[in-house]
Amino acid sequence: MHELSIASAIVEQAAEIARADGADGVSSVTVRVGELAGVVPDALHFAFEVARDGTALAGARLIVEQVPAVAWCGGCAEEFAVGMPPFFWCPRCDRPSQELRGGRELEITEVAPVPAPA
């Protein structure tokens, strides 16, 4: 399960970001995961819960934004979903696409700090 190594990297990077911002802890981490990134969101959630224990993210929740895989057809200027398993054939002009525009993302987009006590 490679999601555990991905979750560990997310925890490390989010903790580093929080430290750099002067935060004592993290309440949530938002990540964008592309449809073709080879990451199973449920497995990533489970792995995150394991990886966060004993860290500044111990109480943090993981928010996964799934990004659909889309390709671009240069022949007819059509952007289309490639689906899973991926099919890179333009549904409009019936030609193969050679440009993937989205769906391979795996990035942290937000690290929310634990709110300061009032």
TrEMBL record:
Pfam families: HypA. Involved in the maturation of [NiFe] hydrogenases. Required for nickel insertion into the metal center of the hydrogenase. GO terms for molecular function: nickel cation binding; zinc ion binding. The keyword Metal-binding applies. PROSITE patterns: HYPA. The lineage of its organism: Bacteria, Bacillati, Actinomycetota, Actinomycetes, Kitasatosporales. Keywords: Metal-binding, Nickel, Zinc. This is Hydrogenase maturation factor HypA.
